[in-house]
## 1
Amino acid sequence: MIQFILNNQLIKTDKPASTTLLDFVRYDENLRGTKIGCREGDCGACTVLIGSMKEGKLEYMSATSCLTPLPNVHGKHVVTVEGLNLPDKLNQAQQAMVDCSGTQCGFCTPGFVNSMCGYALTCAEPTLESAISAIDGNICRCTGYKTIERASGQLASKLISKDQNNPISWLVANEFVPDYFLTIEERIMAIQAKEYKSNGQIPIGGGTDLYVQKHDELHDFDLDYLFDKDHLNGISFYGNTCVLKSSATVTDLIENKTLLDAIPNWYQYLKLLSSTPIRNIATIAGNIANGSPIGDFTIILLAMKAELTLTNKVNESRKVMLKDFYLGYKTLDKKADEIISEIAFKMPTNGTLFNFEKVCKRQYLDIASVNSAITVSSFENTITEAHASMGGVGPIPKYLAKTSEFLANKAITVSVIKEAEQILQTELSPISDARGSEAYKRLLGRQLFFSHFITLFPETIKMDDLI
């Protein structure tokens, strides 16, 4: 049985494990405030909150319920907009939306309210910027967003005095969430003792790729749910090597202090990857195994010389470099019974710089037209080692082997960068599609490659000299 708390109610269900949380709350529990929009994690109309125990502490996150399989909420607290209602008045997020005229047709409003309440539950230092960032996964077609941004700012201003030692009690007392939240931690602890076990053959993590690609087929799949298995979770550091377990999410990386300290602009880079609700449940291993030619984290890890550990059903492991993992479009150097159990990469040290660039039709919450990353080690004015990657320019995520080899032991000059770009073009094989023509993608490849050096070596490489 899958067991979890839905708002204030204990749920025990034997529904097929491939059922999405969205379908369960709407059709089995008749909680219609959670809307069906895109079913691809883009619109945010189905946003819910999921609370789980981490290191002995109850923590909440926003998530797109359309991409969340029921087993991934086993032993957790799921909150829909109905579960945020106070007995006789609006909660603070709802009131802010009213005060600032943040709603028109109302279809998107429950998702916004859930994201805003999720921000109230999680924020440590409330600011207008972070409050707006918390709703980056919610789309509104009516308001133009300014009224919703003002509502987010009003909410943030009321959170300034939040008690970080007893946050739930403070939020209940100040009418952000209803009082049943005070009992959830104890009730969750009781459920967590009852482990959910799946015996499927096809591994699935957060579901953000598989449920988009094969939503109608999943009821026929024999799935093995990996998202919350302890041996597949965590981030470890050994010297300057970072090792990710396969269920580590983008949010785990964007919040990791060691990575934030080691890689300048790490937060800004990862903010370009989808939206908060998706980052909360999207696993790094899933991004790699999906094999998308424009997988953002795949491109980042290619430039970091990542190495994968593949483990089969009898716990036998082997290692393969990420740049050798892709054999062709959606064809991987992976056997049917293997999963990506670990991803290891070197963090930049003194003399090594990293940069990530992405162009898409909108800045956030979108798939790249072309993306690119580079790691450059240099001494004085000479590149000692370089590793560059690019997505959207061929059938696989592309490690730019010839370009990287050419850059080694070259002076950091405009002429060298221009010559390297000519070699880069020989490694690209883009096609014209909905994201742009072949010529446009080649142009983007050029501009993003130049941008790496303009960004990393601003004293030496100037835009006007390259273009």
## 2
Amino acid sequence: MTLEANRQGAPGATRPGAPGSEQARRAPHVLLGVTGCIAAYKAAEVVRGLQKAGCEVRVAMTRAAERFIGPVTFEALTGQPVLRDLFDDPVSPIPHIERAEWADLVAVVPCTASVMAKAAAGIADDALTSTLLAAQGPVLLAPAMNVHMWKNPATQANVRTLRSRGVEVVTPDSGRLACGDVGEGKLPPVERLVEAIAAAARRAAWPQPLAGRRVVVTAGPTHEAVDPVRYLANASSGKMGVALARAARDLGAAVTLVLGPVALDAPFGVAVEPVTSAAEMAERTLAAAAGADLVVCAAAVADYTPAAPADHKLKKAAEHLDAIPVVETRDILAAVSALPGERVVVGFAAETDDLLGHARAKLASKGCDLVVANDVSRPGIGFGSDENAVTLITADGERAVPTAPKDDIARAVIDAACDLMTSAPNRSEA
């Protein structure tokens, strides 16, 4: 069940967006290490991507890296001097310690086999490896090298050693390498690296109110089969739900994303349960929700599904389709709210008219704790858009969140849910 019964009339109950509900979050500090590899040029793109993701970035380079890309490039991008040497740094007499203490996260992109071996052995013979040894926060390495170097037993032993110490080693991709060989060793796409680094940096820099909590998010549309090649669906892109999964992940939660058919990459660090139909989404969501502390039902689930889908492609000439008999699908939000146990349940009301009236009615009829109301008919914030504007509604009050990128809206929703979870038991400690 939801927590509403426990909160009604309780002293200290919070309203959506009440003072203290959103914790101040500064820009995460990322020290990006660059080593001597042909993929070093991609580090400049990583810097820009991290800056767009809200991170403050500084750079440290090995001397070998300077053979592939100059420090002036990184100084122009970051506005900060590049750490290149232990003994001639313009910023600090002990630059490796100063940078290590500044950084919330040290990420090395690309990381050569040599630097990875030094990190595993604790060797600190230049500015970058000395900073790695001094780092107190998390470390992420993105190796890039020849396939035979990657598969060498020494390299694999170093990977196991580093991971056993809590270092995040991003497994390289397979493909055609710069030397012409084909196999593992290729640096993953910049977008994937940026998401992995930004997520790790946020977890290190921001308060983690969802640490130890389990969160389930549903996202995207469902496809209800008419025959093997046709289906009933809606225009949901899944962007809002994916942003919610990222927001919960960044605050420390173990997140399961039940994701309908969308053209989106799975968020880094989130367990994804891909589904197609409303029936599949209901089954996976209810199974995951049973052990969750927070469930956010953001998917645009079809209300109806064909009663008798054909097992073959219907031919227009011979099997003219005058009507499609349908049956109602299961109400996932209401079913999750009715589950035994305590959890916060958040629903979405995507409306085209009487937004607040329909949303308030949904809050009352579904038994959930919070309804996020959004007008999908408004230009710029409807299905498929990159921005949204919502109103957060609970039994205690409501607050409008003005138009903003969906990542910002997602954080406002998860913050409001965190406020409601203050009285919820931590299931991992139960």
## 3
Amino acid sequence: MRVVLGVAGGIAAYKACSLLRLLAEAGHDVTVVPTAAALKFVGAPTWAALSGKPVSTDVWDNVHEVPHVRLGQEADLVIVAPATADLLARAATGQADDLLTNVLLTARCPVVLAPAMHTEMWDHAATQANVATLTERGVHVVPPASGRLTGKDTGPGRLPEPEELYAVCERELARSRSHDARATTAGSAPTRDLTGRHVVVSAGGTREPLDPVRYLGNRSSGKQGHALAVAAAARGARVTLVTSAKPDLPGVDVVHIETALQLRDAMHAAAADCDVVVMAAAVADFRPATYAPTKIKKTHESRPDGSADESAPTIELVRNPDILAELVARRGGAATPIIVGFAAETGDEDGSVLDHGRAKLERKGCDVLVVNEVGEGKTFGADDNTVTVLRRGSDAAVEVGPATKAVVSDAVWDVVVSLF
């Protein structure tokens, strides 16, 4: 496949060398288009040696080949890594003042931008507005990682690792082959199979407060739900993410919650006008019956006989609502929204993980159930996942993994799309 690798002028440009090598070793025909500023960080000889092709930043080079039009028209994928704040601004406003921005304007293939910059620049309202504009046009903006930046700075704005960006590229190329993303009219965004759909995703565990300091919770990190939201946005959906975590996901409307009751209210409100509901959150089954307005103290008083008081409070629990079952009941006999449930299961003497999953699918009445085994060192907090995707009314089961949660997300959306 023909890939254009754009490189903007940021210190993270050195990481693009590894991405170039991964793409080339996978057999892709890669053309590197750096900006003039990018060459301040990594020189043209490096890009030429790694790609095996001459490198140019200027629309006036090799004019007879019309590179400012040809590269974008012929590409199967354009990825810009790093995409600086300046590059995002120029792309969002349709500027064409160098070869790379010309390529972005002429591309009729999937476009991926991987921002990298200081946290203050990433958080600025102008940058976020530019990201929102690009996302609405169908550009896949990969959220920056959080970590060490230039100097001593730490925070959101770090370029994701080359292996992660390579995985994004491969998913986009596979989707392009499947859905013929290049068959679009001039000026329109690449075809996305969730375009025009409103998707609501829940993610993360809930926290049920016991007092101002303590709460009952679980090990869920929210990573799978967040990956589902990112994948849906990349496929063209308008996404509402209801989560207990604090993600930074461009192009996704985030609603923050903590408790199961807050999650319930937010999901019912968001699901009122959506096409798909994905209940990936790990909702606490129980919550404390009463909330102590002040911290519950340990007592150190001695009993009359002089012995220490080692007693502990007894916590009464009450059951939380079954949000998934409520959403199914609320839908009634309507065809939409399509409802996807998650079953975090452990096998026991009554059955295997898959046995419990099939029983839950029948009991809940949702359209799709994603079943995964959980436990120490499994799923929670990990970057990989292994799942089985079940459909109501079908004995077929889609096995996915071990794979990244991004790959799992695309597999889930493939099943959902087949139900429309």
## 4
Amino acid sequence: MDPVRNPYAPGAGQRPPELAGRDREVRQFEVVLERVAAARPERSLVLSGLRGVGKTVLLNALRSLALSRAWGTGKVEARPDRSIRLPIAQALHAASRELTPRHRDPERAEEFLGVLKAFALETSVKDRKGVRWRPPYDVPALRGRADSGDLELDLTELFTAAGELARDLGVGVAVFIDEMQDIQPDELAALCGACHEISQRGVAFVVVGAGLPHLPTALSASKSYAERLFRYISVDRLERDAADRALTVPAMSEDVEFEPDALAALHEVTDGYPYFVQAFGKATWDVAPTSPICAEDVKVAAPEAEAELAVGFFGSRYERATPAEREYMRAMAELGARLADRPVPTADVAALLGRKPQSLSPARDGLIKKGLVYAAERGSVAFTVPHFGAFLRSQHG
């Protein structure tokens, strides 16, 4: 069939043509928006899950929903080697551009920008390096507001100022933080503390974070009350009917159908993971000669889809690892074959490699920092990428 008309979109954070299986999460956020706008108490949200389940796609969809309600929004992608102060300032500057033109009191809008500038100017020289953005220079920094140098206090004052500006318009402000697990532990604690304070004050401000499966644990470790501070949403693979809808709805828009056996075959090879659904859907479309798409088309397309995943989805991550880290991952994959790729005990990894567990800590910690594995529970590790163990076994079996 015509590849130009191919509706599927495998890509990092790229929204699929049909956002299937996420209706519940969208409805939950709609309630949050309405409650905050009505000055009712509500918790911020945290999305967690493996890579390839569509966390970033869902995060962007929730931001679009907030924008449709005339909220001020901004987005941050956390990095382990960078403070969040300047990215948060940039995100709230973006939110201010959505709010200040509608505000009837220019002095109130200028006051917020002054607080924002004071907050941003506290950014260290190291964290400014390589960043071209500068806080708004057309307003003076409001000294004494959000510039103490204590990140928790400064975030609280900044979030409060932003929420007050939005409240004047009957809306709120939402900051969306992707890769939230990469925020430095002390700054994650500061962010939790600020969210706790503004929730008690009823400020019209929410944080929506997304990260790997261990993000809830990291938040709880940073502040003991974090387990009650956020509404936690686990983003997982799609149920069969949602996975089918992700394939059939875009195809129907192009007057193309799937035979039931083709849908069954696609679900078997994708396991319902949204990224795989898009990758195999795209490859199957390209090889299918005509509608309806049949199981044989899926069989023919599978090697091409698998080859693309091996390079772009799996291989690129494997190449980031050091030799010692690769050895650790191969041991995890071998053990995973016996455990249906469930989390594996770190002691078993050490035993398989004939090493003491302490000697493998640098490799394990390096893999965690690179986002390739996570501490699933005490004394065990798991891959952050679905089917990664199977990929390693196929490459190094």
